[in-house]
From TrEMBL:
It catalyses: (2R,3S)-3-isopropylmalate = (2S)-2-isopropylmalate. Heterodimer of LeuC and LeuD. GO terms for biological process: L-leucine biosynthetic process. Transmembrane segments: none annotated. This is 3-isopropylmalate dehydratase small subunit. Residues 67-118 form the Aconitase A/isopropylmalate dehydratase small subunit swivel domain. GO terms for molecular function: 3-isopropylmalate dehydratase activity. Its EC number is 4.2.1.33.
Amino acid sequence: MARKTKATEMAEAKHAGGLSRAWKFGDDVDTDAIIPGRFLTINDPKELAKHAFEGVRPDFRPSTGDVVVAGENFGCGSSREHAPLALKGAGIKCVIAKSFARIFFRNSINIGLAMLECREADRIADGDVLEIEGNTIKNLTKGETYEAAPLPGFLAEIVESGGLIEYARAMVAKKHKGKKK
């Protein structure tokens, strides 16, 4: 029987402590790689999740709370919102990348998928166990800590609300609550 490494033990225990496993990708991951175009007739996030990264990484089967880690320009390509929707449906806690394509970034905010822009994302390896608190990423596998750039306040509020629709609902409810007497 093979002896377990510290990283393997941490990965097995991650769900008990709310830790995240990293699924690592490279630079210029386009939306076709995230969700192939033939699945764009699907709008259910859970169904889309079954096909996420199907063409480039068939072993992609994240657990709820895992994270996707990538290099530069994550989410480039077409403007489809199905890509962040598939990741959210797969239970991805957030995407950590060195940089994001503009439209992917906007679509992710709109559906409430958290993103962290971190210049040190390349220090994170596939399978590393991470603990994320705010903009701080602790790599428990390597014993390192990285700081991500914070989202502007109003964008962070939209993501924390679960997306633009939930954010708008909360604003309308708050406005109407003030009018009731």
